[in-house]
């Protein structure tokens, strides 16, 4: 009888912790952060006693918040908001380190020519021999990118504007969502 009461008490305590943990997780997942990168750690601890022996049950959960694409930081040489893997709908990937280097193109470096227009960063990228270059366009979430071309035409933004995006190439065309890179992994 004593064991059943003790077991019932432990199960009741664990279910209360579980309910509290779920409520805390839902609260944290609905809040937004303007920081470039942040980590929220939630932990709860319960002490129970059984036959004069202390048992500690610890439950912890870590939630990793996605960094927000910081175009001013990128333009200034702070690439921390780019770190991670980005993928387009065709399966092509771009993996940035904290120095702005691309794992897929080790000789490519961010160039000095950049321009911010309508909250979008356009940046030249060149190889280390400086024999060629292309453009990268960094588009923060909730920003629509519809560039106007030399002939006065523009293409509609067909990408998922709820996410940070990257476009690359000589002539950036944003009307085909298959060529838009989205963040898929943050270390």
Automatic annotation (TrEMBL):
Keywords: Lipoprotein, Signal. Residues 1-21 form the signal peptide. Residues 24-62 are annotated as: Disordered. It comes from the Bacteria. Residues 69-100 form the DUF6287 domain. The keyword Transit peptide does not apply. The keyword Signal applies. It holds the Pfam family DUF6287. This is Putative lipoprotein.
């Amino acid at each position: 009888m004593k064991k059943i009461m003790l077991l019932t008490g432990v199960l009741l305590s664990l279910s209360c912790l579980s309910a509290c943990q779920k409520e805390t997780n839902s609260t944290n997942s609905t809040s937004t952060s303007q920081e470039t990168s942040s980590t929220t750690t939630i932990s709860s601890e319960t002490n129970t006693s059984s036959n004069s022996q202390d048992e500690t049950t610890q439950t912890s959960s870590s939630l990793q918040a996605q960094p927000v694409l910081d175009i001013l930081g990128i333009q200034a040489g702070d690439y921390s908001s780019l770190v991670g893997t980005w993928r387009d709908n065709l399966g092509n990937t771009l993996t940035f380190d904290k120095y702005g280097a691309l794992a897929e193109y080790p000789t490519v470096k961010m160039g000095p020519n950049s321009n911010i227009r309508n909250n979008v960063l356009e940046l030249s990228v060149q190889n280390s021999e400086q024999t060629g270059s292309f453009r990268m366009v960094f588009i923060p979430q909730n920003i629509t990118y519809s560039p106007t071309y030399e002939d006065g035409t523009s293409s509609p933004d067909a990408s998922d504007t709820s996410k940070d995006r990257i476009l690359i190439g000589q002539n950036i065309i944003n009307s085909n969502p298959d060529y838009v890179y989205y963040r898929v992994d943050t270390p």
